[in-house]
Structure of L(+)-tartrate dehydratase subunit beta:
Amino acid sequence: MTQIHNLNLPVSPQQIKEVKTGDLVYISGIICTGRDHFHKRLLEYHKHGKDFPASFSDLKGGAIYHMGPIVKENENGGYSIISGGPTTSARMNPFQTDVCRLLSCNIVIGKGGMTDVEWSKIPAIYLQYPGGAGALVSKFITKVKSVEWLDLGSPEAAWFLEVSKFGPLVVTIDSNENSLYDR
């Protein structure tokens, strides 16, 4: 039976283990956007012993959203996310296990699923947000907390977003590696 989970970030590994494929999730807290270059840069930083920016500590027990936002710079120098639909997650397959481990991140959000990620060992879950609904994401964002690595370009930068009841997100891969994509 489908359950609904309202997760306040950060979450514990035990909370993640209670979430099953087919369940619906709503997230509140700090999430971070991350696409290809984000993942590659994190691994390069780690490889060369460089410290991650302090804001990355918000990802412990948190969520990475595979998304390249459309961003508007406000008059006060801040930012607003205009649209933020998911990008295809498969491009991050080679990096996701290591990135989640390095950041102690338990949730990945995107579209299309992922393979070769050690969900049970992290432990982590994969949540799907519907493609084509990017404009709705701005309704869940209460604040753009910060941005890192803007030199990568707006879509590839790490946007730290405060969200409230972001969802519904469908659990398509759980921490036991059960996957709706295998059906």
Remarks:
- The radius of gyration is 15 Å.
- The beta strands are 4-8, 24-33, 63-65, 70-73, 79-83, 107-110, 125-128, 141-148, 158-173.
- The first helix runs from residue 13 to 17.
